[in-house]
């Protein structure tokens, strides 16, 4: 097995060789928020958006993005996801929608990038579906919160 680096001996970017690593159960949880005006959040919660069900559409967009992460992120390994859960929760107290994604695989590399990609895409979808009401929305706090499995073991923020 090669060293786990994205640089080859010539110093050029390449995909890491994970062929010699054992396949193990791997889990990653990521989160983020989109902040918006009170009227926008209320329209979203009531289902009064002209584009339809923003939360349902964002959930599907997050799932689709996670499944295609290797096509979006250079040098990312394509992974067979065994489980993916995208949860979007309105937070009236924060004038926000919170997104949490749990991604799982049994493989030779982790699913952190898939979880983070799903969060970003789900929140961007909310933005897209609500932008006619509020172009000042802001996405923030996108971060990995937990990781389990693999060579480096468990980690929590």
TrEMBL record:
Quaternary structure, from the entry: Homohexamer; trimer of dimers.
Active site per UniProt: 128
Family: Belongs to the MoaC family.
Sequence positions that bind substrate: 75-77, 113-114
Pfam families: MoaC
InterPro entries attached to this UniProt entry: MoaC, MoaC_bact/euk, MoaC_sf, MoCo_biosynth_MoaA/MoaC, Mopterin_CF_biosynth-C_dom
Domain Molybdopterin cofactor biosynthesis C (MoaC): 15-150
Encoding gene (name): moaC
Name this polypeptide is given: Cyclic pyranopterin monophosphate synthase
């Amino acid at each position: 097995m090669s060293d786990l680096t994205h640089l080859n001996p010539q110093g050029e970017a390449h995909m890491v060789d994970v062929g010699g690593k054992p396949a193990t159960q791997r889990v990653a949880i990521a989160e983020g928020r989109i902040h918006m005006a009170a009227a926008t959040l209320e329209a979203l919660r009531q289902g009064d958006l002209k584009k339809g069900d923003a939360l349902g559409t964002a959930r599907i967009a997050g799932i689709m993005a996670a499944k295609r992460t290797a096509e979006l992120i250079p040098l990312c390994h394509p992974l067979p996801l065994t489980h993916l859960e995208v949860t979007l929760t309105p937070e009236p107290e924060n004038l926000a929608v919170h997104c949490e994604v749990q991604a799982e695989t049994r493989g030779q590399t982790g699913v952190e990038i898939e979880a983070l990609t799903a969060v970003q895409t789900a929140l961007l979808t909310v933005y897209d579906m609500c932008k006619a009401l509020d172009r000042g929305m802001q996405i923030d706090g996108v971060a990995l919160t937990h990781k389990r499995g693999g060579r480096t073991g468990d980690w929590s923020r």
